[in-house]
Structure formats: C-alpha cells, structure tokens
Amino acid sequence: MTRTVPRIEVHLLQVGHCRHPEWITLRGGRWTAAEFPALAALLIHPTRGALLYDTGYAAHFEQATARFPEKLYRWITPVQLAPAQTLQHQLAARGIALGDVVRVLISHLHADHVAGLRDLPRARFSALRAEIAGLAGLSRLGGLTRAILPALLPEDFAARLDYADDARCIALGPLWAPFDHGYDLLGDGSLIAVPLPGHSRAQMGLLLRDRDDRPLLLAADACWSARAWCEQRMPSLLARPLMHDWHAYRATLAGLQAVATRQPELLIVPSHCAETLRAYAPTMTEAAA
Ligand SMILES: [Zn+2]
Fold first, then answer.
1. Which residues surround ligand 1, an ion (CB under 5 A)?
2. From ligand 1's centre to the CA of 68, what distance in Å?
3. What are the C-alpha distances in Å from 226 to residues 154, 220, 250, 260, 279?
4. pTM of the model
C-alpha cells in the first residue's frame, strides 16, 4: 500500500530586494544595476500549519548594519523593503500572523535569508548542523566577510533549533544524482532537506510537491537565477570570496542542470530570481481551510 505524501500549498514571497550589477551574479551579465528579490517561501502543510523557507529581509537588517563595520554590508548591497513587502504584511494578507509560523527552514545563515527570524516568536528553526557550526567563534568582522550578521539571530536561537540532519536520512535515487540523499524533516515525506554544497558551509535546499502535484526544489543561493543553471554561468570572480567552496558550487550548479534535464516537470526556485518568482503561479490559490 502506498502512503500518500502530503502536498504543500506554496506561496513565493518577495520580501525586499537589493541591487547589484547583473554581471556580479552572472558572468557576462549586464553592467546596469538590477533588482535581486529576496525570497521567503510560505509553506502551508495540511496538518502542521504554516512554515517558512527563509525570511527575506526585515527591519532588523537595518539595525544590524547601522554601525561599522557592518555598515559596509549595507553600502555594498543597498537594500529596500517596501511596507507592502514585509513578511508581516504578506502573511497577514493570507490570514496568517507572525506568531502562527511554527517553523522556519533556514537554507543558510546569510543575512538576506534570516533577517526576519526575530519577528517569529513561536517558530522553531531547522538548519543543517555544519551551517550552524560555522557560527562558533565567529567575530563580527569574520561574520561580515561571510555575509553573516549574528545579531539577526534571536537570543534563544540555539534552544529553538533542530538540526535537519537529525531527521531520517533517505536516498533520493538516480533521478537526483549527484544529490544522493536528503532528510525527511517532518517524517511524512512532504518536506525533504537536500544539501546543496558550495555556497555556504552547509546550504539546505528543500524538495516538495505543491498542491498541483508539481515537484519544486527550493534551491536558495545554489544558483542566483534560472539562467545560471540553464546556461551553466558562474557568478563573477568578485563573488568568489563570498562562497564557501567555489569548486563545490560549480559542481552543484552542474548538478541542478542534470536534475532538471532528467525531470522536466521540476521547478528549481533560486532565492533571488525575479523571473522564477513571477512565473510560479499555482492554480490552487484558495486559502487554507
Ligand atoms: Zn547566500
């Protein structure tokens, strides 16, 4: 007897954006500055309630970068967060309060992915163990050079954290090579954490099926746009210091293309790709009962 895996209602939310010349994120890209949306995915599980994959930006980013040396971060990546784009506003528009969010699945610790954690008073957190281990002994300057601002993490972060790799490990099978394993985060097969190495110490992608039964791989910063994996275009060498492991990043980028070629129905969702965010529109749009 086959067990039915719960389908997830997915809302891709743009929670602020920063501006860069495109060529920094995509080799050979345009020289003009372009907007890079920051993604938070609202994931409504039929029985577990509202979860988030990352948070995007929040007012805390401004506070955490008010002083030197953190101010440099704000200068290098000018951030905008319109009132209508705050997480609170976009969740409320869907009938969800910040306190309703039960869990945040953290792809990695870069500031544009975790800036809103302090606004979610009841949420527990999930991340890969090695990503969190990178916080140990991290100085302010050391964090800054890796785009990590520890001030964004709630004081009780450690107490609310569960390691994603403590969940049941499952083999993904040949369709997913070179990504060979994942972690069944909720124990029902609905949300599978998939390690996507290279960008940070231990970046966590997320595999799920949405309400239209479409497979989605939320890929965070394993690629910065759909074009990057389609055309196998690496970022500029200027972005190299930000990467934990440049060669692993390249292998992951190639892996994404291989997986997408084998599974044309799969939608890969980078966290900063305006095209992908615009294109995703599930037909099931009614609010959760
Ligand atoms: Zn990142």
1. 110, 221
2. 21
3. 32, 12, 15, 11, 11
4. 0.94
